[in-house]
Write a structure and sequence with these properties.
Length: 441
């Protein structure tokens, strides 16, 4: 099968090597299934600050083409100008509202035009088009209409669940709404704690054409090079080999709430624990978080690793004494699965989205989101109570067996895609294999 992937997202969002692994694992899963994969990416990063260019993956087992979008840096400049000179009032909201719709239309055109160019100039044919993210959904549908192939839309979570009762939802949050409503042969939404299944039902999506699946997570490769000397060679010079290592990894956005972890670390250090926080990732909050680190007097206790490749994330995860995650919206995400799979004790906050994955006092210690001292006490307990940490590692092995591997996750998906291309009705496959994380029995 020849699959055309159209993505508004880069494969790796942080300097071409870090970010969420979901898109890369999807591409690799289709290649493993024997499909010929062609990928189209936008020229510029849709979400990054400034005019950052997307870096195509190197040595990938699929071919990549770039969609020209010279208009995107100008749209970002207008957004930045409004934020800086107009303020946060209604005028800025209106400017952003207009910009979002313009970007959606222009991104649709850029991606669709690139697909046409790949089809005719490069003589590539395809049996199915697979659109990643709501900004690519309409382009995928246009390919379906023009070339009469099935189209799949893949959504990586949503923020609409708590907004569904607001009036004129489709007008106020058009781009997110369109991710669900653009016609599709199959809609795959990631079960990441943002309740995408609730949104699909409320928006009247045909559930026979809807799959709500959790991402897979593989076991780390051999531990031979996962040593503290290796970590020190990869990190800034003030990483101390004799400290307890508290690890977190994410895009440094506000809702990831790294500030909670920094404040908790201050309490942990005040209690006499020699611990360092290792932060993997980058993003718009980097400077403000560095300023908070200085304000709390933690410069020597926080190690900013910057963007880190996915393989190295595994190594840091296995070396860490504790993994911490305290997001606002949801904590059910790839790094949490990876910490469970790596057997690392977890400190987090009470969050309904992780209730089936994290047991307070079992494989995790949980604190109230508004209690940094309580969070710091959780860190302190794991770092100083060796028997507790050992019990938590053992409990992780039980949770780990409930998670899909990426091989299992992608086998379920490619079975569905094969049926689509053969012309089977999605209703015939409505009883597809359940997500083991939602149905552990």
């Amino acid at each position: 099968m020849r699959v055309l992937h159209i993505s508004a997202l880069p494969v790796w969002s942080m300097e071409g090597k870090g970010g969420m692994p979901s898109l890369q694992e999807t591409l690799n899963g289709h290649v493993r299934a024997g499909h010929k994969v062609t990928l189209i990416l936008p020229e510029h990063h849709l979400y990054a600050e400034g005019s950052a260019r997307v870096q195509p993956p190197t040595d990938a087992p699929y071919e990549t083409f770039i969609a020209s979008c010279p208009w995107l840096p100008w749209a970002k400049r207008i957004r930045f100008f409004a934020k800086r000179h107009v303020g946060n009032g209604n005028a800025t909201w209106l400017i952003n509202w207009v910009l979002n719709r313009m970007v959606y239309v222009l991104m649709t055109w850029s991606l669709f035009a690139a697909a046409v160019r790949v089809r005719w100039r490069h003589k590539r044919r395809f049996d199915l088009v697979y659109a990643h993210n709501q900004y690519a959904a309409l382009a995928g549908y246009l390919v379906r209409v023009f070339y009469r192939v099935p189209n799949v839309t893949r959504l990586y979570g949503t923020f609409l669940a708590d907004l569904m009762d607001r009036p004129l939802l489709w007008l106020r949050y058009t781009t997110s709404w369109l991710g669900y409503k653009v016609p599709h042969s199959l809609l795959i939404c990631t079960n990441d704690g943002t309740r995408g299944d609730e949104v699909a039902r409320r928006l009247g999506v045909d559930l026979a054409r809807f799959r709500f699946w959790q991402n897979g997570v593989d076991r780390p490769d051999g531990p031979g090079d996962a040593t503290r000397p290796w970590a020190q060679s990869m990190a800034p010079s003030h990483l101390r080999s004799d400290s307890r290592w508290i690890f977190t990894c994410s895009r440094l956005s506000y809702w990831k709430r790294i500030d909670r972890i920094l404040r908790a670390l201050r309490h942990c250090r005040d209690a006499g624990c020699d611990a360092q926080l290792l932060v993997a990732g980058d993003g718009p909050e980097r400077e403000s978080l560095a300023a908070l680190t200085r304000e709390l007097g933690l410069e020597s206790d926080v190690v900013w690793l910057g963007p880190v490749s996915h393989g190295d994330i595994w190594r840091f995860m296995r070396l860490a004494d504790v993994f911490v995650i305290t997001n606002d919206v949801t904590n059910r995400c790839n790094p949490l699965y990876e910490a469970i799979r790596a057997g690392t004790p977890i400190v987090s906050i009470y969050d309904p989205s992780t209730a089936d994955l994290l047991e307070d006092g079992g494989n995790a210690l949980l604190a109230d989101p508004s209690d940094p001292e309580g969070l710091g006490q959780c860190m302190l307990r794991v770092c100083t109570d060796a028997p507790l940490a050992d019990r938590m590692r053992a409990a992780q092995r039980v949770r780990s067996d409930r998670l899909w591997t990426w091989q299992e996750r992608m086998t379920a998906e490619t079975d569905e895609l094969n049926r689509l291309v053969r012309g089977s009705s999605p209703k015939e496959t409505a009883g597809a294999r359940p997500d083991p994380a939602r149905n552990p029995a």
